Amino acid sequence: MKTFDHLTVIGLREWIALPELGIVGLRAKIDTGASTSSLHASDIQPFERDGQRWVRFTAHLGTLVQRRHRCETELVSLKTIRSSNGQVQSRYVIRTSLALGDRVWPIEFTLACRKSMRYRVLLGSKALIDGRLVVNPALLYVQDKPILTLSGAQ
């Protein structure tokens, strides 16, 4: 049996933060079947700032208590995604830092309407690879909630 001591173990669900967007205390579901991570967003509006493509959107946080957070960030691309039910749609892609446990690294998120989903964030396999994470699906909330200072750094 091989072991992977150089990788961090996470559970099927984890607490995360998106410090560059000013978002903390967000529950994420880990989805190894999805390549790209996804964030629940509405009111998505692309615009230009200093000749660069940007996007503003409302991030929806929480499931029992609905919280909304208005965000603006650079737009990475527009990507065609095929959902698990076979539906194809174009989604805006952003790149922002992800805080999970005591680590922070940049990942890409597609912005999508996830209002009918239990979790407002899915972390896909690219985020897991970049974070050097392995998933034990029998566990939940293995890592501590990220603690962020006012500057967003840990």
Can you tell me about this structure?
Residues 9-146 form the Retropepsin-like aspartic endopeptidase domain. The protein has 154 residues and is mainly beta. The chain has a single domain, classed as Acid Proteases (Cathepsin D, subunit A, domain 1). Helices cover 4% and strands 56% of the residues. It has one helix at residues 125-130, and strands spanning 8-11, 13-18, 23-30, 37-49, 52-61, 67-82, 88-100, 103-112, 121-123, 133-136. The strands form two sheets. Strands 2, 3, 4, 5, 6, 7, 8 and 9 form an eight-stranded mixed β-sheet that branches. The termini are far apart.
Per DSSP, what share of the residues sits in E-state strands of 2 or more residues?
over 45%
In total, the number of strands is 10
What gross morphology would you assign?
Answer: globular
Rg for CA atoms: 15 Å
* Low-pLDDT stretches: 150-154
Structural class: mainly beta
- CATH H-level homologous superfamily name: Acid Proteases
